[in-house]
Amino acid sequence: MTSETVTEIYELLHEAFGSQHWWPGETPFEVITGAILTQNTSWMNVEKAIANLKSAGRLSAEVIHRMELSELAELIRPAGYYNIKAARLKNFLDWLFDNYGGELANLEPIPTSRLREELLAIKGIGRETADSILLYALGRPIFVVDAYTARIAVRHGLIEPQADYEQLRELFESNLAQDTQLFNEYHALLVRTGKEFCRPKARCPGCPLEKLPHTLENECL
Ligand code: SF4
Question: Is the CB of 216 under 6 A from ligand 1?
Fold first, then answer.
């Protein structure tokens, strides 16, 4: 039943919205930079920060690894919390250069579970960021969870409201084929649904999931 619902949600959302073409970024390193910068800010601000790095000719792992922290912070200022985020990006690159010669290609033979553990051990890299890097930059079949995922899953009775990140990830991973492209698209579709319909005050009428059983049937606008 849960498995069927998880699949049906995907099918309804994909039918309604089509492919979302995530994650925006020309290279895996740009995707990683975006994943680190997007914490607690809008994507529009991240785009400005990435545009600054690009126009300064600085959007490369090697260049940012060598760059002064203060210069990096200034370039990514539009993303907000720029000192903290500059340090996080540097922490990621210290890990990459100390352990893998600064080459993302050298991560390819590393099993996903070990890679995830290593990413989570980097200061400032939380679960959502680590999993976004794994899925969208490195092409690993890891389901990314965020507040939208939790809200929709709870409202559709797939999981208890107190479920934590790992339980939500397990819910989707264990009820879907281990398919990177499917996980990529599914997460993007949940984000779109959360932004347009499943807001703190749900807008069920017109939502692609309206016909599925949910806990808000008598409360929606
Ligand atoms: S807005 Fe309503 S129908 Fe849409 S996902 Fe949220 S609870 Fe479900």
Answer: yes
Residue 15 phi, psi dihedral angles, 5° rounding: -65, -40
Q: How many CA atoms lie less than 13 Å away from 169 in the CB half-sphere?
A: 15
Separation CA 133–CA 144 (nearest Å): 9
C-beta of 210 in contact with ligand 1 (< 6 A): yes
Q: Please say if the pLDDT value at position 221 is more than 60.
A: no
For residue range 62-82, list pLDDT tens digits in order.
Answer: 999 999 999 999 999 999 999
pLDDT band at residue 219 using 50, 70 and 90 as cut-offs: low
Question: Which mutation among 10, 152, 199 tests ligand 1's pocket best, with the greatest number of atoms within 8 A of CB?
Answer: 152
Q: Tell me the backbone φ, ψ of residue 33, rounded to 5 degrees.
A: -60, -45
* Ligand 1 proximity of 204 Cβ (cutoff 6 Å): yes
The C-alpha angle 118, 153, 188, rounded to 5 degrees, equals: 60
Ligand 1 in contact with 176 (CB < 6 A)? no
